[in-house]
Structure formats: C-alpha cells, structure tokens
Amino acid sequence: MTPILRHYRSLGGPVNQYLAIAWDEIERMKDSRVDYVSNLFPLVERRMTRAACVALIQDAGLPVPPKSSCYFCPFGSVDRWRWLHEHHPELYAKAMALEEHSKHFPAQRLTDQAFRERTDLSLRALGEVFRTGRKLPTPPAVEQQPCGAECMT
User: Is the peptide bond before 3 cis (omega within 30 degrees of 0)?
Assistant: First the structure.
C-alpha cells in the first residue's frame, strides 16, 4: 500500500481525490484502485481544456505551472530540475531527501526518466552539476509525457 493510501485509510472514511486532468486529456482518467477513494475530475466535468485552464490562470495574474508540477515528479526534465534548483532550493532539497530516503535508492533515482538510465546522477549529484556549471551527460531525446498521476497525486 502506498503512503498516500495509508494516510487516506487512516482518515477512517471515504476520500474524494481531485485530479486536475483537463478535458483534452481524458484518456489519462483512471478509477481509484481502492474502494475508499473516489477519483474526481472537476476539469473534465466542466469540459475545460488545458488551454482554457492556462487562460484562466493567466487572467488571474498567476504563474502557469508546468504540466508535471509536483516538485518530486520523476518525470521531470533536466530543465525542470534546474528550474526547481534555482527558483525553489527548499523544494529541491525536499526532493533530494525523498530520493535519498526511498527504500529503492540508489537503484532508482528521481532523475532516471530524464536520463533514461544513461547516467547514475542522483538529485544531489545533479545539484552539484548545477552549482559548479559542469557539463551534463547528454540525455536521450525523448518526448516529455504529461503527468499521468501514477504517484496518486
């Protein structure tokens, strides 16, 4: 059982989990795997596309978050990790701690998707690259996939 499901279970009742999947991404919708969690899709219910969401956010004068905007998302690109390191060092540090305290570390790193197993850079090592300006190994060219909420966030 994942940590989030353990937490939901500890609440002692049914949980509504709101997922921000847009109308033009409905193929990403999934039912919850457990009977005490209901996945709800308010953007789909309102038939809001990603473009409509971006316009709404911009009209409110707020910054538009990237598609996969969880600070610990393992689907983040190198540019996304660099941005987080430079603009939100406290969140980068939290992501580093999550990676390093994972029962799978160091066999799995949060950078694995960005480098597709062509390097063994952890977030700590990647942060050092960012700080020193050293050259990064060239990650393979892959199409960035949008967040599929695989982590249940």
Answer: no
Cα separation values, 50 from 17, 106, 141, Å: 19, 35, 24
Does residue 141 carry a pLDDT above 60? no
33, part of any domain = yes
What digits encode the pLDDT tens for the residues 122-132?
899 999 999 99
Residue ending a domain, among 12, 28, 59, is 59
**Which range marks the domain in which residue 17 is found?**
3-59
Residue 49, pLDDT > 90, answer: yes
The string of DSSP codes covering 53-92 is HHHHHHHTT-PPPPSS--TT-TT--HHHHHHHHHH-HHHH
Q: Does 45 share its domain with 7?
A: yes
Q: Are 138 and 17 in contact (CB under 8 A)?
A: no
pTM for this structure?
0.60
Q: Is residue 98 one of the residues assigned to a domain? A: yes
- What pLDDT score does 153 carry? 46
Please state the φ and ψ torsions of residue 40, each to the nearest 5 degrees.
Answer: -120, 145
